[in-house]
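Course assignment 3, question 2. Fill in each field.
Student: A.L.
Task: Predict the tertiary structure for the chain below.
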Amino acid sequence: MEELVGLREGSSGNPVTLQELWGPCPRIRRGIRAHKWLYREIGDSHLLRYLSWTVYPVALVSFSSGFSQSITPFSGGSGIPELKTILSGVVLEDYLDIKNFGAKVVGLTCTLATGSTIFLGKVGPFVHLSVMIAAYLGRMRTKAIGESENKSKQNEMLVAAAAVGVATVFAAPFSGVLFSIEVMSSHFSVWDYWRGFFAATCGAFMFRLLAVFNSEQETITSLYKTSFRVDVPFDLPEIFFFVALGAICGILSCAYLFCQRTFLSFVKTNRVLSKLLATSKPLYSALAALVLASITYPPGVGRFMASRLSMREHLDSLFDNNSWALMTRNSSPPWPSEPDPQNLWFEWYHPRFTIFGTLTFFLVMKFWMIILATTIPMPSGYFMPIFIFGAAIGRLIGEALSVAFPEGIVAGGVTNPIMPGGYALAGAAAFSGAVTHTISTALLAFELTGQIVHALPVLMAVLAANAIAQSFQPSFYDGTIIVKKLPYLPWIRCRKISSLCDLGGVLGLSVLLVISRSPQQEDRYRPFVRSSHHVIVEHFMNRTITTLAKDTPQEEVVKVVTATDTAEYPLVESTESQILVGTVQRAQLVQALQAEPSSWVPGHQQCLQDILAGGCPVEPVTLKLSPETSLHQAHNLFELLKLQSLFVTSHGRAVGFVSWVELKKAISNLTNPPAPK
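Answer field:
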């Protein structure tokens, strides 16, 4: 039984053993994949083969979208924009709910089963799943030990979980921690640094250990093995071409980010598409999947896009050392009936299109196909598609250079052939880094391949791409936040700060932390703040503030509590002075009003002071803003302390408040000033 499992109908008669069926052989593993098996075994009819190629991903995508959306509407997409919002201090409980976890797992499984037909990844959903597990474990820990909820502890667990999500996908703990910091943290506490590395290392180790237990690997190795030259991986003049590749990736990333954000906004605002997404998400997903699957049909247009390769095989082939253009200069390799694992680059060759034609066509088509795929409302990741897209850009540049310099570039009297695979590695890191506004993709490329011989050129390409992308476009995740209108404070791009900005930041603390200061001291700093920043809190603060004075009669307090639903009320010393002394929680105030203290004298008019004396606690206000506080300083304070609102006081008097809503509107007006009336 162990030696002979069975014979496949129509085969040559060779037995298939159990070890071969579940062993590490790539051909057997590909043979048992449902989609490719169905496409191969369906017959020679083009209609049946087309249906087998398209119906399978369409059914999976429709089920993924319908199932996940029926459980919870927050399971679609990658989840990283929402996590970035949560880590900034905004509470989005539904995104960390345990129901969302189940919907995300089932939906992501269907998404990954579609393979390269839909061309979506799993980085974002894995990060989201890790964070949901951390949040659930945090709640269990709180209940188990019986302590009150600690926001600081919860945030520490979420930060570590985000690093685990990235590290387990690529088995890359170092770049996983750095990538999660760059993408999801505006400010990062060094106290969480070792926690993130410890959790990410454990996750990556277990992920690669499972591959050894399943006999897929003999030991723990890198995911994508390469064999770049170690002695002379690149010549010194090639540094210029790597930097130029980074600039090209930066320009293309700007175009991609603009088109992706524009199309996503169009889908949400178009009357037909928005109605379709609101009423029938599976139908929209099925239509989008049908378009993508039809284009990638191998005997059709997909022949020129290497559509028979999986996403892993795409990277394996693009990182190949050899120059395909030089190898096909005097020969024309045949297109195999099935992809040859030893010669995956055959899928990129067509006698009429050549290598340059297929790579160019791949880039043109995948540019808009990836954008279309990002609008499908199902759990999916978007990092791996842009990583492969960048690798194709680098491969195209590397092939062009290998043709321009067939013998290599002479440096120091020695000639070494150009390795297009090195340019593919640099292009993958540069384009994905530019799209996500991260530098850690360079380190990720090294951990993925297990080689660091291209450290300098790859890092220079990533820096060049980021310099261009960050100057003109928000990152992919920030763009999604903008389109979804999530409560996240944007970065101030138009900062007109004088040369005394550093000194102003230090002295500005005395303006921000107005705990106790005399009016003369406050006036001393006003001229300096005005000269450093043009926009101040007085220009955008909300002046509609409901205060409760200690001498307010009980009847007026009841009217205020009944007419408003504010979570807390600012408490002032008296109606006349309006000096801010603290805050009173609405729930505790209502509870105190309902309980009549025994110390109250009948017939005596009660005021708020008596209610407070009866046991209603008053919380002190430790942080306040001055009307002269600059927008830049207020923004930094909100980001650093993850605040939701702050009161504004002038000479101790409460004159208004600023929440993230007013701050976000002020930043928007600063970046894009409204047209004059």
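Instructor remarks: The two ends are 84 Å apart (CA to CA). Residues 1-32, 494-532 have pLDDT under 50 and may be disordered.
Grade: pending
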